[in-house]
Amino acid sequence: MSFPSWLSQLYRGLSRPIRRTTQPIWGSLYRSLVQSSQRRNPEFSSFAVRTNTCGELRSSHLGQEVTLCGWIQYRRQNTFLVLRDFHGLVQVVIPQDESAASVRKILCEAPVESVVQVSGTVISRPAGQENPKMPTGEIEIKVKTAELLNACKKLPFEIKDFMKKTEALRLQYRYLDLRSFQMQYNLRLRSQMVMKMREYLCNLHGFVDIETPTLFKRTPGGAKEFLVPSREPGKFYSLPQSPQQFKQLLMVGGLDRYFQVARCYRDEGSRPDRQPEFTQIDIEMSFVDQTGIQSLIEGLLQYSWPNDKDPVVVPFPTVTFTEALATYGTDKPDTRFGMKIIDISDVFRNTEIGFLQDVLSKPHGTVKAICIPEGAKYLKRKDIESIRKFAADHFNQCSLLGKLRLECADLLETRGMVLRDPTLFSFLWVVDFPLFLPKEENPRELESAHHPFTAPHPSDIHLLYTEPKKARSQHYDLVLNGNEIGGGSIRIHNAELQRYILATLLKEDVKMLSHLLQALDYGAPPHGGIALGLDRLICLVTGSPSIRDVIAFPKSFRGHDLMSNAPDSIPSEELKPYHIRVSWPTDSKAERAH
Amino acid sequence: MSFPSWLSQLYRGLSRPIRRTTQPIWGSLYRSLVQSSQRRNPEFSSFAVRTNTCGELRSSHLGQEVTLCGWIQYRRQNTFLVLRDFHGLVQVVIPQDESAASVRKILCEAPVESVVQVSGTVISRPAGQENPKMPTGEIEIKVKTAELLNACKKLPFEIKDFMKKTEALRLQYRYLDLRSFQMQYNLRLRSQMVMKMREYLCNLHGFVDIETPTLFKRTPGGAKEFLVPSREPGKFYSLPQSPQQFKQLLMVGGLDRYFQVARCYRDEGSRPDRQPEFTQIDIEMSFVDQTGIQSLIEGLLQYSWPNDKDPVVVPFPTVTFTEALATYGTDKPDTRFGMKIIDISDVFRNTEIGFLQDVLSKPHGTVKAICIPEGAKYLKRKDIESIRKFAADHFNQCSLLGKLRLECADLLETRGMVLRDPTLFSFLWVVDFPLFLPKEENPRELESAHHPFTAPHPSDIHLLYTEPKKARSQHYDLVLNGNEIGGGSIRIHNAELQRYILATLLKEDVKMLSHLLQALDYGAPPHGGIALGLDRLICLVTGSPSIRDVIAFPKSFRGHDLMSNAPDSIPSEELKPYHIRVSWPTDSKAERAH
What we know:
Two copies of one chain form a homodimer.
Chain A: H1 6-12, H2 28-37, E1 65-76, E2 80-85, E3 88-93, H3 101-109, E4 115-124, E5 139-150, H4 159-164, H5 167-172, H6 174-177, H7 181-204, E6 208-209, E7 226-229, E8 235-239, H8 244-252, E9 257-265, E10 277-286, H9 290-304, E11 318-320, H10 321-328, E12 341-343, H11 354-361, E13 368-370, H12 375-378, H13 381-393, H14 400-414, E14 427-431, E15 436-438, E16 446-448, E17 475-480, E18 483-490, H15 495-505, H16 514-521, E19 527-533, H17 534-542, E20 568-569, H18 572-575, E21 580-582, H19 586-593
Parallel strand pairs in A: 3-5, 6-9, 11-14
Antiparallel strand pairs in A: 1-2, 1-4, 2-3, 4-5, 7-8, 9-10, 10-19, 12-13, 14-17, 15-16, 17-18, 18-19
Helix pairs in contact in A: 2-7, 7-9, 13-14, 15-16
Protein name (chains A, B): Aspartyl-tRNA synthetase 2, mitochondrial
GO cellular component, one term (chains A, B): mitochondrion
Organism (chains A, B): Papio anubis
């Protein structure tokens, strides 16, 4: 999909909205971000050599002597130059008189994307030359002095080409990509939204921001944890997937409202749109129940929601896991549109159609349908064919109907129906998950549906001792437009119950968690929490195609940093202090010999 | 060293100030922290099952029905129970009438440090039984209902003993240690101070909070970087010591005011009072000079300084590196007291004392002295002896006089002189450091005094091509009470200069930094920044003896997590995906065989 370049937008006249979101343009971008977070504007030029930003100048600045610093965006016939900074663009008049020869030389000769500093006066543009589509379009700068701060070497490609090129090129030259409107917007919105979350948690509700270690020990079942060799032979730290244990220990320690914007690590090899390190808004509190956490999060999102979007309406609707599966065929339903799954078994109870008869005669056999609104009007014969094929391809997968529902939505939108309003953010709580699932490799054994510290549903505690498979948990997921953006639970605070679940039901080695079990024994308060996936949330809020668009320096889907070329080879003598050696795969030994 | 326990403080009557800082007591702690950060108090009981915190109740709450949750602090003769939460203590009257037998049973039988929930009415204490030293000392709670939320198992030691015990025990049972007044105070002050820093940077000055990767590639000379094996044979990520390269690349990317509360990593093996992971307030901005960064930081500290300390006075004084060495014998002088080093060569110019004659006849030969105020009054003969011995032990070390100055200060304070006011925070900028130092292993080669991206002093650029050893840099250190708490510099933004310094002067492999050099070529703005060591700063602000006292879950000085026992052994099959094997030292193979 094409990445919206702010450059091309500017050339086209700036105000074209970007697909799937209504993006503010340079200038109004800052107004909206700034208004949402504080009463007065930040001072963007404090402590700097400039007096103003390029993007802030208006008619109200007429006559002022200003110093601006920025990048040369483009030059028109050696008479005008457009200077850019993060705040926007401003037109600079290149002086033509003989006395300004040196200034003219600098401004005419510096390549595009060079960095210059100019001082001069804010003047009106001549009548008829105003540009109403440009926030600074009423004024221009009459230059007195200019300095070339840094010349830009000729880029190995045209900026226009670059913007159209592959994501790999964008990642390799990330520092150029970051100059784009879209990346500036995404990263600044992210910063603002996190700041508002901190204000809500810390200033309004007394949460304490506490940093927890990332050099930790491996956790049971933590197969996706990166390892960090220590200087003790055979001893490794692990980079944890979340601060789960630490946040529970903080509750035991009486720090009863904790949050952290926590860096987490997960080694999933090559999975699209995942990152080996990611960020979560990590929250835990004591003396709280499920509804307490839900209200907290609803308030958090409402408070931190960007001003340029429609306000968040609370409370969010809630469905149970069972309802979600029955109605949407998934535990993370996209509730921006209907097309719910309907049980139409009763209609066919007396059918004579053979295969339906077969199905309905079986225990739990049902016939289900999705009603596609105006399907007959929008869908073509080949669409119906593709739906039929999709169904056949996914036959016997229980999530078929859920996938089919999304497939049909895509088809309808391809055909011109507006099914999912791009300005709509549809939050949903999914609750009452099962506490355990059968293990994939051995379905007679159990594994935690989420993690082993999740408390059972209060009504289902007795089931732990009789039919643990049927026990529901106090886990809750937060879903936004069909994406899971958060999950949490009330935790087990009773050491006996925790031991029973770990040792007897899950058959885990409790020794690895002895510190946590001991902590529960020494006055652990009832507690619960949640973690929001920040990268995914910002990705949805900004309408970005990938989480890589809301991270300053993301890794490629293979986990590479394409700019610096990480991970990198390490000389074997640098491995020695860590008592490790590389085990070269036999087939690559030959390669190395070359 | 004795760790001030809030428990023992409470038993003693709460108001004793702790050595070296004036600590607020429970109750007033929160007032001071809260007032410093926002106009209205946070709602500490929102979303929770309690109606109030234990510590907030006053006469103004009389008659209110409240629900409190907390830990049993102690019980007096089965008639009173003192309940504790993070906010403070409150007295609960154990009901004696027959109808309340079940409530009484719960409250009388629950062990100390158990967690209970009580509901009841706020009543006055009987006349004469008020406790003016306790913030809630005018009231008590008449209980109606009580619930034991979690019983505390018998602790393996008395809490009183625990508080007196070794730091190792405190680290092993960190969740108990966190319940202490001091740890609660330290971590909450840290959270508040960082929040204020964010408000200053983000809301007042338009900085953008940007997260940078911690899975990166090794940097030249990065011998202290932890390694993270990847799934590609022989390829490793490195955990960077700072976001230095990323923050410079952000400047090239036009994000011209960046900050991050950044987790950094440094593998220094066992060094006292260092942590393998630590936190820095990381800042970078474009179009700025040294004084701009200095003013920014002065404003930052002034704005975020806790209300219960004397306000920070700005601007901070500045000394050059050369002056600092000459006057204080160190580049991080403690300026809370005088006792400066004075050159008294002239006095002895015509001396007949042989060894002084010898010294003064040599080039650069000087005689220097420290005047100890009232030394004759305070210091005893054996003190003079110990000073003489100290001088002999450190003979021929150029930092001798600086060490001697601190040694004398310690001695004077031991003898009762108040030399360093415990409420005084004395900031100092040290500037004009040398750009290069001779390499320790080969003094004919150069290494960067700080890092290779530091810009030379504008007056000394020509020296790079003639006498690079004499070139000063645009590096600046921030010193507080004799501790380096921050350092930064104006960076090189010119690719040619950066290449010359890396390749020609430092003889580094520029291939490892080709991405950064390329970025400088493509329109890098002039930029500079700083990093403040957050752990050290909070340690000094709270007057803590060690940075471990301002970190929730610190490692021991050997890099161990004594609570969870990290780092830990890893089964060899879990090493396979990372293509590494453990190289067991030969002498430990035998051990393993057992």
